[in-house]
Amino acid sequence: MEEKDKRSRTTSDRTIRNRTTERDLGQGSGRRPRSAGERPTRERPTGERRERPTRERPAGERQARERQTGERRERRTATDRAARRPAARKPQSRRRRKRNLTIKIILLVVLIAAAVVGAFLWKRYSPSKEQANLQEYYGIQQEGQLAVIVNDQITEPQGMISDGKAYLQYEIVRDYVNERFYWDPNENILLYTLPTDMVSVEVGSTDYSVSRDKNSEDYVILKTEGSTAYIALDFIQKYTNMEYEVYDNPQRIVIQSDWGEKTVAEVKRDTAVRYRGGVKSPVLTEVAKNDQVTILENEENWRKVLTSDGFIGYVKKGALRKEETKEITREFDEPEFTNISKDYTINLAWHNVTNRDANNTVLQRIAETKGLTTIAPTWYHVGDTSGTLESISSSDYVNYAHQANIEVWAAVRDFDGGIDSYEESLEFLSSTSSREKLINQLIADALETGIDGINVDFERISEECGEHYIQFIRELSVRCRQNSLVLSVDNYVPMGHNMQYNRKEQGIVADYVIIMGYDEHYAGSPEAGSVSSYNYVKDGIEATLEEVPKEKVISGIPFFTRLWQETPKTEAELAEQAGTDAAEYPMNVTSEALGMSAAKAAVDEAGAELVWNEETRQNYAEWTVENTTYKIWLEDEQSLEAKLQLMKDNGLAGTAEWALGQEDSAVWDLILKYIN
Q: Within 13 A of 360's CA, how many CA atoms are on the CB side?
């Protein structure tokens, strides 16, 4: 058995080897020899099927081989794709990917930067919606306060609502609405001046009097909280060309009393009114399309406006249209203050009468003048703070003047007899009963002596006293008007420190306003100088004409000057004055007043040379005796003519001279040329 199997395997192996040898050699096949590299092939008999030995593999091995085959196929596919792609495209692709990434990064950076810039610009330039604190805007500090807007001003919140009526604190009425209302806290009385009557109201009353007539309202006219007085707006409106409205949120009173030409505009679209010009400024309020606003100021892109409900703020220029100037008026019968106006140029001279016996010089004084129309003797003084009148008036004096066709305007003064200080004038004038007492005595004496007018020369008026002083002028004007007496009022050359004299109101209630165009340098001045230089007089006239009609202005000129003496201060004096205003002046200065003739005589006696000073328009002289320097600016025909020309050029009512007896006789011919 083994032998047989062995032989069979041997024969079979031999047969296989022989077939291989024949195939390899190509023998007995009849085929052409293979060329180098040619794959050998074998001819098969027709219908012959080559059978290959097969071997069954385990299932796991088969699956593993299939996976390996698939992986090889994929690698070949990838390799084939790579083989088909040109080799140069590989670095280009990398560069493109890198470039695209860079672009994306740049775009991202740009977008972030744009977002940051946009946010910044929006934050900076976008309109703010912040609402302003209206309590702070109107100055409201506590509950119950009522804001007050008068014309285009926000005042202190000094109003109140009581029993359904609006009230305004007296100070606001006086300063912003109607200054003719006057409150006396000492005597608890409210006064209002009409051309020929006085209106008076007592605290807590619904009644008021006009002279002796009683009238009533259906509300309390005057209320007080402590010493503070509140006046009903309805009562104020009876005597004032005004309108008012009350608004809420916050509670406020809006008053319109300033009439005339106004620049107005229409709101083009709903827009914000801001506290300041700029989109970031807080919003005060909103105005609606077609609302009308009053334009107060113009800026490049903004307009400062007043809304109808009392907000003063800014809107964009582009939000407005139909900007135009309109005449804004209200129907109201203004009280008419009639005045006495002479149909000739006034030539008034003050006569400094210091006692009754001096009245007897009137005939001599009048005889020495030419062209005199009016004489003002210094007869009356305020004797004390209760309003007692001191008088040295004389009916004979008046008769002599009238015989010479000269009117008498007797002067009343708050100095040089009786009271003589700022404090005393304040005490006297701030009392209604004291003022009334003096006025009653003045009017009675004027009627008794037959004088033609009263000349007020009050020179001790402080800033605090101003409102009381002008109330005195008002009250006196009523009584003068009732009795056909001329009322003239003396004033300093207008300066910042004497505005309390209220020349504007004087120009309404008085007949004439006189400028005392002298005392530029006065007794007690720390330095020497002219009593009445040309520009001093000129400036005084021009400033007065800004407030008073020229037909009521009289220009006062001096018949006197001052002789000045200067001596150098010692080292000890300068050391003692160090740090004070006096230290600014190296000279001790004294002076004496001289009439025109006496001043010229002093220059002649000293043998000094007169030199014309073009700046002051005066003749000037200077000389030294031992350690003292003398200086004088003369008043003579040349200097006075320059001042009289100013009167004529400005069309004034006339001239006035201080004082009779100090003049050079030749000056009257000069004055006569300018008053005719």
A: 3
**What domains can be seen in the chain, in order of their start residue?**
137-328 (2.30.30.40), 346-559+635-675 (3.20.20.80)
Three-class DSSP category at 473 = helix
Q: What is the pLDDT of residue 26?
A: 39
Phi, psi of 661 (to 5 degrees): 95, -15
Q: Which of 580, 578, 510, 503 is nearest to 543 (CA)?
A: 503
From the number of C-beta atoms within 10 Å of its C-beta (0-12, 13-18, 19+), residue 26 rates as middle
Residue 168 to residue 233: CA distance in whole angstroms: 6
Q: Is 544 exposed, middle or buried (0-12, 13-18, 19+ CB in 10 A)?
A: buried
Residues 6+ apart with CB under 8 A from 513: 488, 489, 491, 503, 506, 507, 544, 548, 552, 553, 554
**In the prediction, which pLDDT does 68 show?**
60
The string of DSSP letters for 291-358 reads -EEEEEEE-SSEEEEE-TTS-EEEEEGGGEEEEEEEEE--------------SS-EEEEEE---SGGG
- For the cut 50, the answer to whether the pLDDT of residue 12 exceeds it is no
Contacts with 581 (C-beta within 8 Å, 6 or more apart), sequence order: 526
Give backbone dihedrals phi and psi of 226, rounded to 5 degrees, phi first. 70, -125
300: Cβ contacts below 8 Å, ≥ 6 apart: 317
CA-CA distance, 203 to 223, in Å (whole number)?
Answer: 6
- pLDDT at 291 > cutoff 70: yes
Token pair 């002649």 is found at 604
How far apart, in whole angstroms, are the C-alpha atoms of residue 250 and residue 132? 12
Q: Running DSSP on this structure, what letter comes out for residue 530?
A: -
| pLDDT surpassing 90 at residue 93 | no
Pairing of strands 654-658, 346-351: parallel
Q: Which two tokens stand for residue 425?
A: 């004038």
CA dihedral 486, 545, 492, 527 (to 10 degrees): -150
Residue 274 region, left (φ>0) first, then alpha (ψ -120 to 50), else beta? beta
Amino acid type, 499: M
- Token representation of residue 46: 């027709």
130, 139 contact by CB (below 8 A): no
For the cut 90, the answer to whether the pLDDT of residue 144 exceeds it is no
Please state, for a pLDDT cut of 90, what percent of the chain lies above it: 80
Amino acid found at 602: A
The number of beta carbons lying within 10 Å of the beta carbon of residue 674 is 18
- pLDDT tens, position by position, 589-622: 999 999 999 999 999 999 999 999 999 999 999 9
Average pLDDT of the chain?
89
What does 610-638 look like in DSSP terms, one character per residue? PEEETTTTEEEEEEEETTEEEEEE--SHH
Element (H, E) at 367: helix 362-367
Residue count of the chain, please give it.
676
pLDDT greater at residue 424 or residue 56: 424
Residue 16 has pLDDT above 50, yes or no: no
Query: For 441-493, what is each residue's pLDDT tens digit?
Result: 999 999 999 999 999 999 999 999 999 999 999 999 999 999 999 999 999 99
